[in-house]
Amino acid sequence: MDLNETPEMAAFRGEVKSFLAAHRDAYAGGAATDLLAWQRELIAHGYAARTIPKAYGGYGAEPDILKSRIIAEEFIAAGAPRGIANQGVSMLVPTLLEVGSEEQKTRWIGPTLRGEIVWCQGYSEPGAGSDLANVQTRAVEDGEDFLISGSKIWTSTAHLAQMMFCLVRTEPQAAKHEGISYVLIPMDTPGIEVRPLKTMTGASEFNEVFFTDVRVPRDQVVGGRGRGWFVANTTLKHERGMLGDPNATEARLNDLIELMKSETIDGQKVIDNPIFRDRLMQLQGRVLSMKFNGLRLLTSQLSQEPAGLAGQVVKLQGCELNHQLAALAIDALGELGILYHDGPHLRARGSWQRSYMFDLGLIIGGGTAQIQKNIISERGLGMPREPKPAVL
Amino acid sequence: MDFSLTPDQKMMQESLVRTLADASSLDRVRRFAGDLKDKGDDIWRAVADFGLAGIVVPEEFGGLGLTLLDAALASEALGAAVAPVPFMGAVLGPLALMRGGTAAQQAEWLPKLAGGEVMAAVAISEPIAGARDGAGVTAKGGKLSGKALFVPGGMAAGLLIVADMAGGLHLVRDDAAGLTRTLMPGIDETRRLAELTFDGVAAEALNSGKGGGGRELLTTLRDAGWVLLAADSLGAAQVMLEKAVDYAKERRQFDRVIGSFQAVKHMCAEMAAELEPCRSLVWYAAYAFDAAPAEASLMAAHAKALTSEVGRFVARTSTEVHGGMGITDLLGLHFWFKRLGLNRQLLGGPERVREIAARLQGLAA
Description:
CATH superfamily of the largest domain in chain A: Butyryl-CoA Dehydrogenase, subunit A, domain 3
Strand order of the largest sheet of chain B: 1-4-5-8
CATH class of the largest domain in chain A: Mainly Alpha
Number of strands of chain A: 10
Shape of chain A: globular
Largest sheet of chain A: 4 strands, mixed
Radius of gyration of chain B: 20 Å
CATH architecture of the largest domain in chain A: Up-down Bundle
CATH architecture of the largest domain in chain B: Up-down Bundle
Oligomer: heterodimer
Number of helices of chain A: 12
Structural class of chain A: alpha+beta
């Protein structure tokens, strides 16, 4: 255990700080005044697309987890917006780097990194949720093209995206996991219909996407025909890591502490109520445990050792914890906690209520809590899979 | 940045686990638990020879001169083996002397403690966890009066370190006139607790060193005690999880191992998911005790409180996974269940410890 920073890392932290101080005008108020210009600036300095090769439009640095962490910490401390981290950047780009053809890398990575192309992810279907390998959207050969028909659901940003990376069944005769291909589809292709999917928060965070004979060239397949399941899995693990980020959880805990210090009931601060205070302390202990679990994971990554259970529990525990933090905030607000939308009594523009509802979706999405428990017990604890029943 | 154990630490812990597999086997623990005349001298000798009696004692006094993180790793192994060893006194006794003792006191006691010839016990429950049944010790003119309860290892200790209700600490010899020791029979028969009665007992003050006077030294002992109990719970709970998983992989019902039922698998997954992050918190709390003193108390409090909650959850869940066998003496799982039960309450249950955590941050009066 040694949590001190080396002189090299301290110097790097200094560089990031000076950059952020010098560019404060570009993000006054916490948001970039010109998103794409800010993104280009970040890439030029290696604060976005840091380890992506220069040839594909990145900064081209060696991977260094500590430096990435320092960048993240300093951007949070300065209230500066990070680089674009949409599904194109965080899921498609790593996938193309790993399994894409040279032509695909050159064509797609640069514009995606610069924010010129926005992607959406076409994985889940009405009949393929936890059982994702059951995708039924089919792609039938027609000359040099595929004709794609079927539907996708939970497609966030589909209404903004120019492109979709999508799992489709290209080999209907093959075994379930071996008949899927990973294809890139322009969203303006005739036959695609996007319908917003309104959720309990009142917003449409997701969409449904319907395909009717959508024509896509066959060379838009990434990683080979029938290999889509394996291609998708290389990047799904990144999504799960993102969903339990302990730094975001700690920031939310700090907001909750401030809320409980400022709100009063009958003139008494909420924090002075021993029951609320104990609930807060229970959650603080859990937030700290996940924070240090995160440091332990970082060390495993640095030494390239498998993290085992410490990694497998992050999505399950982190998402649950976020939900509980929002739940305590709503309870601390009491009757104020039932207000929503707007009005003079509403606190934090309804963000606690929105988190409480939206985070329940995150417990379900990206692999449900129950799927996470299967992963923990099977891969982490070596317990047997549930056998398939002989008769359904 | 390195949030991991050193190769030496890993090796030490693995080696201790092997030592305890012989010295503190379940059969041996069972005999100790069933016979009050059994003092467990052979087990103590084995861990003292390993170096645990002097794990934090500086090398110049014959100890290993290691940190609280090393002691916590040892405590984890002891909890895993439900070892009947008064380890809390073996760490807190020397810490009290090192931080609060005079040179003469250190020279007299530390070598004997480090070699294991004399055991130390620490009586600090009342000012930390709160006084029960009117207990509490007062100091006046170098004499102690009153009662101290729940002193682990207090029956066998040759040296007692006693806190008074004002936070002062005192050295008391086991043969001091006016001292009476009575066993407090408890659920966890692997740790024997003493009730100490003081009737004008002569004592030496122990607040003179660099640890500072008054409550500062007591706070140090409290934090170290919390970390050790948290680590003991981590070890005990880890074994309960492993035993549940092993049992579920073997036990067959409805023509299949019960570990293939999601209802059972998910119980095991929940135990693992709750327990694994505790490990990092315990490591950090122990590390902070030596390396980040400003955070030490808060981290120790959270480590103690969280492992207490998770420990209770794992203890009952693992027992349930074992079905009816879980509650039998035959299997012996109850030794771990009771170990976790004691660790939860000793030096303050989670509600009390979290209240102190809130106070440390200025969130409670």
